[in-house]
Amino acid sequence: MYKRVYLNPRKEESLKRFHPWVFSGAINRVNMIPEEGEIVEVYDCFDHFVAVGHYQIGSIAVRVLSFKRQIIDKDFWIAHIETAYKLREQLGLTGNPGNNTYRLIHGEGDGLPGLIVDVYGDTAVMQAHSPGMHIVRHELAEALQEVIGHSVDNIYYKSESTLPFKADLDAENGYLTGGSEEVSDMAIENDLQFHVDWVKGQKTGFFIDQRDNRSLLEKYAKGRSVLNMFCYTGGFSCYAMRGGAKLVHSVDSSTKAIALTNKNIALNFPKDNRHQAFSEDAFKYLEQAGGRYDLIILDPPAFAKHRNVLKNALQGYRKLNAAAFEKIKPGGIVFTFSCSQVVSKSDFRLAVFSAAAQSGRKIKILHQLAQPADHPINIYHPEGEYLKGLVLSVE
């Protein structure tokens, strides 16, 4: 059987409420020191079984895979992947020619903490955020093939930048299966096409979590002058174009992101001169924006990945939103987001409210936005609700 981790008194309470993390401070002792990523059983101080999961060095010491005493093997992975796939089927995200892009596995939300799997057409991109998931990556790839092999030919592993650097796991990105020269990099989302660079791009190559929010933006775009800040692949820009925007300007500090945005605009709207892209710093661009825009999208990268920089992150959100509120035309719309897990919904809203007060303008909330259903949130793990957004009307 597995090595055992014993908790300090009363530290099993959160696990009894099915929270899937054991923090290092909760551990009293281990019967044998586990290896990084090894499967362990967790016991309370009275020697009662509590959970089984992946052990790792760090603040989160165990990521729980099951609250039942069971063997974690290939059948376990298959069962969880099948459950996740059936949910995506119910959501209408599989077998849909107008949408071949979705998240299949969303970590704790799908009962597989530390694992992300995104599907782009015939390719699944797997990303491990824990040593345990890295160690079983080949077993996971086999399980994926058994469940979705009828629709996916390639599995690309991309975890060099997501695994704890102290673990010294020597992770290399690359194809676990497939990977011929004919692999298509085309993602289709709501009948729009996007080139996806899962090899060199951010995250798994595309921000699938904004799919529903991009669709909402499309409904507001008609006749408006749109500014898409931190555009990355130009997703919001393409939806604004299709929604009938008068003009769309895309801004990103990365020249590679601008090139990809222009590529995706040309793919969907060839020879359409309503779009321009600029490689510039977001804050500097907003300062010089004047009153040209009446729809602004603020979708920055995570300002805070750790709690020790939370204060600076909230100041960044406040500064960014205040600049947008000051520059947008009367009657304008702002879509503003935070994708930082450590920034709570209330913290983000307070930062935006402070920015609104600083601008001195009348502002109304039209929509409160979140991640889509293929990024499910485990109700016992509120930390999984990482994407927060507001749609605001600025008088």
Q: Which properties best describe this structure?
A:
395 residues, alpha/beta, 6-stranded mixed sheet, 20 strands
Describe the structure.
- The structure is a single chain.
- The protein is globular, with a radius of gyration of 22 Å.
- Helix 5 runs parallel beside helix 6 and helix 9 (310-327) packs across helix 10 (345-359).
- It is built from 10 helices and 20 strands.
- The N and C termini lie far apart (64 Å).
- The chain is an alpha/beta fold.
- Helix 9 (310-327) links the parallel strand 17 (295-298) and strand 18.
- The strands form 4 sheets. The protein has a 7-stranded mixed β-sheet, sandwiched between helices. Strands 2-6-5-4-1-3 form a 6-stranded mixed β-sheet.
- The model has no long low-confidence stretch (mean pLDDT 94).
Could you provide a short overview of the structure?
The protein has 395 residues and is of the alpha/beta class. It contains ten helices and 20 strands.
Tell me the layout of helices and strands.
Elements: E1 3-7, H1 13-16, E2 21-23, E3 27-30, E4 39-43, E5 49-55, E6 60-66, H2 74-90, E7 101-106, E8 115-120, E9 123-128, H3 131-135, H4 137-148, E10 154-157, E11 174-177, E12 186-189, E13 192-195, H5 211-220, E14 225-229, H6 235-242, E15 247-252, H7 255-268, E16 275-279, H8 282-287, E17 295-298, H9 310-327, E18 332-338, H10 345-359, E19 363-369, E20 388-394
Parallel strand pairs: 1-4, 9-10, 14-15, 14-17, 15-16, 17-18
Antiparallel strand pairs: 1-3, 2-6, 4-5, 5-6, 7-8, 8-9, 10-11, 12-13, 18-20, 19-20
